[in-house]
Amino acid sequence: MKTLFTFILCLAMAGFVFAASNSATISTTGSGNTASASQTGSSNAATIEQIANTSTATQIQDGSGNVADLDQKGGWPAGSTVVGETGAQEQHGNNNQATLWQLADGGNGGNTGTQYQEGNTNKVTAWQHTVSSTVDQDQIGNSNEANSYQTGFNGYVRQVQDGTANIAVVDEQGGGGWVVGNTAIETQTGRWNTATIVQYGTGGAKNAQGNYAEVTQTGDDNKTGKGLFSNHDFGIYQAGNYNTASVTQNLNVNKSDVDQLGDSNTASVVQNGGTGLFGDYGDFVNKATVMQNGTGNNATVNQTYP
Q: How many helices (H) and strands (E) does the chain have?
């Protein structure tokens, strides 16, 4: 009887390990396909690869330590014709990672990516090399990180974080030295959060036109943070012409830095709050810095203390 009980117990434990560390891989080719993967438990891995147009993929994971990878592309890097792809990733739990790739060649695009995480110490990353594509990243919890990288024109990135000690980064680059018509919006609610937006052209021209960057932070001790490729403190960095930057920070001891290089740029910083006390950064209440290098620039800083 003891031997039978031990055998049953071993089977149960083996079944638990298998359920807690599953791996799912789906690959599709052709247009108009739909793929989905749903996993419950810990240390699971889900991978979906689609090489086609107008396809849809969904990944849902409930547990901790899970990894989701969604790869939508078409013959990248040459001959890619990815158009109208839709990718959605959703994770509930702690220490999860979700990565989305949407890669196209030339003027193709119109892709949509959605990433949602609820829990602590999670990370989402979206890579889009397309035109007129959209990324929406939402995180609820603490110590989370959201990253979005776009190369192309007319891209849209929206990042929303609710919690403490979160990091949001948007990097929008242009192909052929140009980045045109991109929009980046970051909204953070909580304390000790950091938001960074970088918009710039690549190559010899390094021109960026008609781009819009917006950061809204509500809570104490937030800042628009470090740049991606230098040690300079800029929360919003725009290199080029006709760009617009907006920063709104509510409550106490916040720090904002806006750097604009080019012509006819507009920067607006609004900081509301203040208790008359020194904060974690050693600054008196709120601090705003705007640097503009060029002609025809306009900078507005409004700081309101009760």
A: 1, 25
